[in-house]
Amino acid sequence: MQTDWNFITDTIRRKKCVLFIGPQVYTDKNGVHLEEALCHAVDARNPQHPYIQSFYDQDGFFLFRENKFRTRVISQLRDFYNSPFPEAEAIFEKLARVPFQIVVSFTPDRLFSKVMERLGVAHQSSFYHYGQAAKPLQKPVQELPVFFNQLGWIEEDESLVLTHNDLFDYLEAVFVGGHINTDLKAELVQANNYIFLGLPFGKWYMQLILRVLGIHADGASFDRIAPAPESLDPATRALYEQEFKIQFVEENIQAFVGELYECCTDKGLLRQASVTTVPEIKLGNTPDEIMDLIAYGETRRALESLRILLSPARNPASLYRDLEMQAVLMMSRFEGLERKAQAGILYTQEDNVERAKITYDLAALINRVREAALQAA
After folding, report:
1. Looking at the structure, do residues 193 and 336 belong to the same domain, yes or no?
2. Are residues 140 and 98 part of one domain?
3. Would you say 63 and 56 are in contact if contact means Cβ atoms under 8 Å apart?
4. pTM of the model
C-alpha cells in the first residue's frame, strides 16, 4: 500500500506515534543481518564451543553447557554490541531528529540512545526486566521522551532474554503484568500510530509480545505501519496483516526513514540537533581545588582530577599507589551509579543515598592525600 505521510507526521506532531525498532535495522552494507553477525562474533555454531552447547537459529536463542557460562557469553555479547554499526547509526541519526515520544527497541543495546545523546536530544532510558518490578521513570513520558529496551539491557545480565527458559519466564512476567512502568504502558495504549522498523516478524514469539502490548486490538483507533521485510514469507505476512492489522508499505527501511525525515523537515517537525565540540574540562590541580569541585557538585571532575593528581606521572612516590587505586575504584562506583540512573533502575532516594556516600568517601580520600603529602614533605 501507499504510505500516508500526512497521517504519520500528524500523529508524530501530536505525540501519538510510537516507534519500534528491531534487529533488521542493523543489517550491514553486505546484507548480513544482526543475528548472523552476532553468531559469527561469538562462534555460536561451533559444536566444540566451550560455553555454548547449541544455538537455535529459528528462534535466535542459546543453550549453554552450564548456567555459569552465561556470564562468559554475555561478556562477548557486550563487546559485540559495543562495536560499530555504521548503517544502523546513519538511520538512527535521522530518526533521533524525528520527535517520537517513545522509542521501543527489540535489541538490548543503547546505540539509538547514544546517538540521541550525541545530537543533544534530551531523553530518558529504561528497560524491561522480567525478574523485577517496574522502576519509575525520571519524568512523565509527555515531559521527557523515553528510549525503552523491551527485551532487556546488555549492561544488566539478568534482564536479557537469551534462552528458551528466559523467554518463557519473560512471557510469564509479561502476561502477569507489573514489570512495565504504568505511565509508559498507558502512553503505548493511547497512541494512534505504531511504526515497526526491522522487527523479527518471523519469530513466533513476536506475535505474543505484540499481543501483550495491545497491538493486536481490532479497531480503527490506531494504525500499524511497517516496511515489508524481504524475508517474510507470504503466510506469515498475511497473518500479521489480518490478525494485527499491520499495513506493510512499499519502501524498505532506509527509504522509509529517508522519506519520513524529509516529510518532517518540510513540516518543521525535526528536533534541533545541538552537536558541539566538547570543551576541555578544567580540572583541579591540588587537594584544595578538588575539594572546591566537590562543593560545587562536580563529582566526576573531582574524581578525574584526583586520579590524575595521584597518577605515577604526577606523583611517582610509591606511597600514593594505594590512594590512586582507591580513587580508581571510587570512579568505577560513580560511573556504575550513573549508568544505573540513566537506565532508570534506581529509585530517587536510593540514588541520593549512594551519591552522598561517594561524596563523603571522596572528601575523606582527599584528606588522606593531604596527610600523605605532609608526611612526604
Report:
1. no
2. yes
3. yes
4. 0.71
